[in-house]
Amino acid sequence: MRIIIQKFGGTSVATKSSRSLIVNKILKAKEKGFLPVVVVSAMGRKGESYATDTLIELVKRENPEVKERELDQIMCCGEMISAVVMAAVLQANGLDAVMLTGGQAGIITDSNFNSARIHDINTESILDLLTKDKVPVVCGFQGVNSNGDFTTFGRGGSDTTASALGVALGAEMIEIYTDVDGIMTADPRLVSDAKILDKINYSEICQIAHQGAKVIHPRAVEIAMQKNIPMMIKSTFSEAEGTLIGNFTDEASNSNKVFDKVATSVTYLTDICQIKMFNLDDHASVNVFKLLAAEGISVDLINVSPGQLMFTIAQSFMHCVQRKFESLGYKVEFVLDCAKVSVVGGGMREVPGVMANFIEALSDNKIEILQTVDSHTSISCLVEKKHLKKSLEALHEKFHLAT
Ligand code: ADP
Ligand code: ASP
Ligand code: MG
Predict the structure, then answer these.
(1) Which atom of ligand 2 is nearest the CA belonging to 157?
(2) Which of 179, 201, 232 delimits the end of a domain?
(3) pTM, whole model, 2 decimals?
(4) Which ligand sits closest to the CA of 11?
(5) Which residues pair with 3 in a beta bridge?
(6) What is the pLDDT of residues 38-93, one digit of tens each?
């Protein structure tokens, strides 16, 4: 069996005309001899009737503290509406499509509502449909726990469904269809001269995705990478070739212009709060991180120096952290509305002067750097969110990403 996974994101399934473009993509895969397994996200983005954010708001208006189990049950409805609509469209176009919830597709998870992990995939029902030349249309982003409760994988998790099914079914290719022509050197919504990358290594796109590029979920890449299944990021709305994600050898990458560069992409994360703490003894420093861990709050950009701590958290946790720390009498300063901007590139390993270029790009534009962190293949810094667009444009230009 030559199986292909074809995943369609929120904007791809949002309108009648975009759904007819999806029909063409599926028919093309069948013409090429593939058996497609379709995965869909909820229809549309924030503000649209059946989008995930709309469903969350519906419940949170009644109770902002609603339990995660209940949130998961409603969030799953978005993908179910979308999969039924898509199956109906395919049936109207002569394809024998069958809508499956995550559970019906055999996706079994733990009970960690809102960020469930897949334990097992029973591929029997999908394989049975494929042998009968039917087209499974699977709800992305969801599975079922041992009690039969619906669970979700965390925002953007339909990509994870696609990769997990790809691995479980031994697919030849995982295609991720979205609203851009592929993975780009920057988010085109913020950097107008961002350029499409024709191919990229699993490890590099993982890092770019972890640093905020939401074009693909990092977990989806990590899963596909385990079995070396190639992924293709493409647009539903064009015939552009897209970006191939794989494991390219050094030789292959050297022959590709993109990989000769120090940097591959600039990316960003927003809604970050910087926290500075002073006059702490050693015991208090340990306590701070233990307390954050107990609350399930992850920390980033951590600087520890004698008597002082500096780190960042998601801004949504700021009030909770403020209450806790102030009740313990810690001296805390919060800097709200920050953004983390990063330059990522496998090519910067052991290249001198990368940090100097990074700092120069921002200081030439009078952008204050609040904090920095670097690894062998990335440099990140914290800036005020109002400087986000300018920072990305300056770094994109400095690292010659548009050429
Ligand atoms: P989908 O609903 O199809 O999953 P997403 O909104 O999750 O789509 O991801 C696609 C969006 O990712 C694009 O519209 C684009 O604005 C954004 N994006 C961020 N960084 C990048 C990048 N480096 N390359 C391409 N798109 C990016
Ligand atoms: N609909 C879910 C979300 O908005 C999953 C996805 O789109 O991948 O996060
Ligand atoms: Mg997405």
Answers:
(1) 8
(2) 179
(3) 0.94
(4) 1
(5) 35
(6) 999 999 999 999 999 999 999 999 999 999 999 999 999 999 999 999 999 999 99
